[in-house]
Amino acid sequence: MPTISINVNDLAQLLGRGGTAEPLTAERIEAWFPLVKGELKDLDSETGEMRVELHDSNRPDLWSCEGIARQIRIKLEGTARPYPFFKSTPRPKRRLTVGSGLERVRPYVAACTAVGYPVTESGLAQLIQIQEKLADIFGRKRRTISIGFYRLPAIVFPVAYALVKPDEARFTPLGFEEKMSLREILSVHPKGLEYGPIIAGHDMVPLLRDDEGQILSLPPIINSREIGEVRVGDRELFVEVTGTDLTMVLLTLNILAVNLADRGATIEAVEVAYPAATAFGKTVRTPFDLAKPRPVPIKTIEAALGQPIAPDEIRQALLAYGYEASVSRDKGSVSVKLPPYRNDLMHAVDVVEDVAISRGYGAFTPVMPSQFTVGGLSRLEQVSDRIRDLMVGLGFQEILSNILASRLELVERMRLAGSEWDRTVEVDNPMSLTYACLRQWITPSLLRVEAASTRAFYPHRLFEVGEVAVPDAADELGARSVTVLGTLIAHAHANFSETHSYLDLLLFYLDRPYTLEPISHPSFLDGRAGRIVSNGRPIGLIGELHPEVLEHWQIGMPSVVFELEVDALVERTKEMVDG
Amino acid sequence: MDPSSLISSLHPLEIKVLTALSQQRPPAGLREDQIAQTAGLELSQLSMAVEWLLAKSLIRVDAEKVTPVVSLTKIGERYFEKYSPVERVLSAIRGAGQTGKRLTIQDIQSREGLEPTEMSGAVGCLKKEGAIRIVPGGYVEATGAPSQTAEALRTLFGLLRVAPKELPTFSESMRRVIMQHAVKRGNANEPFRIDDRVERWYALTPQGEEAARALAQQSHAEDVSQLSPELLKDGAWRTARFRKYTISLRPPRLAAGKRHPYREFLDLVKNKLVSMGFQEMRGSLIETEFWNMDALYMPQFHPARAIHDVYFVKDPAHARSIAEPFLTRVAAAHQNGGDTGSTGWGYDYDRKRARRLVLRSQGTAVSARTMAAGPMVPGKYFSIARCFRYDQVDATHATDFFQVEGIVLGHDITFRTLLGLLDLFAREMAQAKESRFLPAYFPFTEPSVELHVRHPRLGWIELGGAGLFRPEVTLPLGVDVPVIAWGLGLDRMAMVALGIHDIRDLFTSNLEMIRTTRAHF
After folding, report:
1. For A128-134, which contacts have Cβ atoms below 8 Å and span 24 or more sequence positions?
2. What are the residue ranges of CATH 3.30.56.10 in chain A?
3. Does the pLDDT of residue A20 top 70, yes or no?
4. Quick check: B521 pLDDT over 90?
5. Residues A437, A449: Cα–Cα separation, whole Å
6. Where, residue-wise, is CATH 3.30.930.10 in chain A?
7. Which pLDDT band, with edges at 50, 70 and 90, does B212 fall under?
């Protein structure tokens, strides 16, 4: 979720508390932040700069100083100020025409003008920041939406959004001195290299041009330097959003429009004319209010919040959170409508949360769930705990390891490459080869400890009860997660007989008769390894580790191990309990 | 210390040494080996006792003599068996002379396999003694004169092989050969080594004489250090004198059988949850995207589902199927809300993507499975689930980690009971007397809450997140009562309890650290 930088003075100004009002303290600001699900990361008391993390990924309207101030101001004033430019009249003076063929590349555009707000230093910083955050996070790195700001006086309307051949047009992009063809921009300009892939794969690219053929920008790549570079002091702006999802394009423009309006600009709509009908018509007046009134039963709200609330209190809470709201004549429901800069109402529960936030979570008295339940551990955990107790009693130190490991540790160092035991669950997109496989047995985890601990005094007796992943084509997930006990003994005289004694004692206490069957396993010395078999079923391995394995791990002590499947022991326990 | 307690604290070895020294008539110093012989001790035992007695000022060094002692090095031992370069060069030249062959220095060096330095050393020595000469053409001949060095070396190897000998016992010419062929700084490849042997004579101090007199007056009963079954059986313990121990010494270390400190912490959490009426759930390390995310109403285009957030399984990449009716119902909830009363996310749900296998990235996947499996109502469940995130491993990010999370189902579940449960967690899990609730965001809950508590040692911390599952989550899984979803972030508390600062140390491979970490709960 985005972390943004805002300035305390800018926030105070937008809250209408500039000038002589007492300065905002961190405490004061933090007390408001629950309203915006914001977290104050830090505040520089000298410059007033603060970093804020916004937690709600469905509320891009809050990712700016204007948005944060708006939500707080509505709460302080009890109701939202109207934004008249969302009305469907009068017909806009300015038009933007959409050419054909764009539906295959980047179909949608929305635009408006903002006049009468001289762009300030901090206003410009916020403009650039919201443009980046919305396009990056909400717009998935400009893939679904991208944004452009321009100097309005330079533009002759109507503006055309159309496809052109990459060699047909040239302009000077931001950050460069000379004119370049679109193809050059895509292959040379840093933004062309970064975002070019979004519109690659077509022989034409989208371009915004005015009526005199002046190029505004190559969306979603870069603006023209002449028209598309907004500077401090500019009083008249043209704003556009292009993208692949009309709802998101419209919502983004709405957010930008209300932000500029909050800074004092007069917003005028632009009429966007498509070659064919969209979900919102063939011509769309933008900014465009997406929200529709929706009834929410009072009972639903009360049931979710766990207490009766008067319908008018619900209405007041929603008004103070920016909604339009009215109570039905029978007082059974409240008709709600989101403000035009939001589009996150999927279910009545979304309204419930906003009521709670508006009233403050502190306004609700906690009550304990009253219904009785019985607690308990799974049988697997019970048996695991018994085994852990016994191993501790036998003098073993418990180990806790990461489950992700490397093929080197799990297979190659264990001399298993190419053998029937060379099977692990591998990660398709590992961040590093060190963590690329799920362990298929515990012994490598214990060897990792042994290898790192040659200076810890001996003897070493280690165990871990933990999960491993065993590839299994018969399993619906392609692998079984199995809980396994692994043990390792390392000291100058460690041998098979010693570890066998521990295994024997453990299985005696677990009341589990067993036999050892000789096994030829590459990790162990031949003739000193066995499969632990119980009720005709293999449940583990025991043996003296092969000197080459120890050499691979750079371990200088004889080491012996045994492993037992705890899941197999659980079944036995269950049989006994069941009779 | 008064004499009687001094005496009773003496070790048996010390008593033997004191007694041996006091038996000298007239009193005089004794050399170490003489003391050992008189007292019947091994030299190693003696040196221990002497050290202790010196520290107690009961004996003193009476005289000291330093003698250089010659011994064979490993190389010397090899030369004894395989002959030294001097001997080999000489015998090679003499042998060649007898058969009429003529050899150059290079011939000899390669025939004998000698190093250049060995060769030049041997030739230089033999030439100086006049045993060989070099004639025109670079050939080497024997003169017929004997080589004192070769003969001396042979004698010395034979002698020293048996035992080291004191340097002064050798004649001057022998000493010269020894010094020439002894290990020196910068030249370790020599057959002889000269070490200083220090001999010391010890005598009793006045206190030592006093102690010895006191000892002599005592019964001759043997000092006992270890009570034994034999002493108990034959009753000899009645007359035995038990040596007093110096109990202030550090004891030897033990290797304990012990739970892992982080496991101890997790056991505590587990027991706490059981005591509050929670039933444990278990799940799989590998999950489908469906159970890991779709069932939790995270849209398939959600930013946290990208390649850089979750680990995908290589092979097989997909599960064979997703159980119905869950797949169809969840797909509908995503697309248009289905029967949940929601608008849904409004996108084309990809059923193949739902089968994509991932490493479980959140414990909530276990809760989703539990809800689909027909949980008890009312019911409380928890899991301590190993989860995997695509994160660079550092002091605050582990490759895999435990998530403590769960659900509470019931007809009485509301926003207020959610707060009540979190209050309980604050008290029971963090011993916090103060807590506060902040609005939060999770894709699968609404309303959502962050629980912040004032921890007795950490101050205000975020202890966990929770909320009421969205109907888009519960209804498709067949649950028609409200459900609390909760998760606790306990790693910081665990790290404080264990006194560590790096999250990787929770899973450390350092046995010494595991053995010495103490949990402070």
Report:
1. A129/A4, A129/A5, A129/A64, A130/A63, A130/A64, A130/A66, A130/A255, A130/A256, A130/A259, A133/A2, A133/A4, A133/A60, A133/A63, A133/A64, A134/A60, A134/A63, A134/A252, A134/A255
2. 3-77, 294-359
3. no
4. no
5. 18
6. 379-578
7. confident
In this complex, which of B357, B440, B471 lies closest to A477 when CB atoms are compared? B357
Task: Express each pLDDT in A519-560 by its tens digit.
Answer: 999 999 999 999 999 999 999 999 999 999 999 999 999 999
Structural contact between residues B164 and B69, judged by C-beta atoms closer than 8 angstroms:
yes
What is the DSSP secondary structure assignment for residue A92, as one 8-state letter?
P
CATH number 3.30.56.10 given to A3-77: yes
**DSSP symbol at A455:** T
> For B263, which of A137, A398, A481 is closest by C-beta distance?
A398
Per the CB < 8 A criterion, the answer to whether B366 and B385 are in contact is yes
Rounded to a whole number of angstroms, the distance from the CA of A107 to the nearest CA of chain B is 17
pLDDT value at residue B26? 66
**Among the listed residues A325, A334, A264, the one whose alpha carbon sits nearest the alpha carbon of residue A291:** A325
- Going along chain B from its start, the domains and CATH numbers come out as 3-67+198-218 (1.10.10.10), 74-190 (1.10.10.10), 263-516 (3.30.930.10)
CA-CA-CA-CA torsion sign (B358, B360, B364, B367) = positive
d(CA A244, CA A272): 15
Containing A483, the helix (H) or strand (E) segment is strand A479-490
- Of the candidate CATH numbers 3.40.190.10, 1.10.357.10, 2.130.10.10, 3.50.40.10, the domain formed by A84-286 belongs to 3.50.40.10
Count how many pairs of residues, chain A against chain B, have C-beta atoms within 8 Å.
Answer: 275
Residue that is written with structure tokens 């034959």 in the block: B234
Coil, strand or helix: which one is B306? coil
Q: Does A484 touch chain B (CB under 8 A)?
A: no
Q: What are the respective helix, strand and coil percentages of chain B, to the nearest 5? A: 45, 20, 35
- When CB atoms are compared, the residue of B340, B399, B443 closest to A404 is B399
- Is B314–A428 a contact, with Cβ atoms under 8 angstroms apart? yes
SS3 labels along A279-341: CCEEEEEECCCCCCCEEEEHHHHHHHHCCCCCHHHHHHHHHCCCCEEEECCCCCEEEEECCCC
Contact A13, A66 (CB under 8 A): no
Q: Please tell us whether the domain made up of A294-359 is placed in CATH 3.30.56.10.
A: yes
- Contact criterion met (CB below 8 Å) for B156 and B174: yes
A379-578: CATH number: 3.30.930.10
Among residues B98, B97, B84, B96, the alpha carbon closest in space to that of B151 is found at B84
Residue with tokens 């804020």: A52
> How far apart are alpha carbons A74 and A323 in whole angstroms?
10
Structure tokens at A303: 């049931």
Distance from CA of A441 to the nearest CA of B (A): 14
Compute the distance between CA of residue A31 and CA of residue A43 in angstroms, rounded to an integer: 14
Q: Name the residue with tokens 């064919």.
A: A276
Q: Where are the alpha helices (DSSP H) in B198-286?
A: 206-217, 229-234, 261-275
User: In Å, how far is A117's CA from the nearest CA of chain B?
Assistant: 34
Q: Rounded distance, CA A470 to CA A259, Å?
A: 55
Identify whether the C-beta of residue A165 lies closer than 8 Å to the C-beta of residue A173.
no
Residue corresponding to tokens 């739902």: B354
End-to-end CA distance of chain A: 55
Residues 6+ apart with CB under 8 A from A224: A171, A172, A173, A174, A214, A215, A216, A217
Strand ranges for B174-293 from DSSP E? 192-204, 223-224, 241-242, 279-280, 286-288
Cβ-contact B288, B356 below 8 angstroms: yes
Is the pLDDT at B220 greater than 80? The verdict is no
ipTM tops 0.90: yes
- Contacting residues for B84 by C-beta, under 8 A, at least 6 apart: B122, B150, B153, B157, B181, B191
B27 has pLDDT over 70 = no
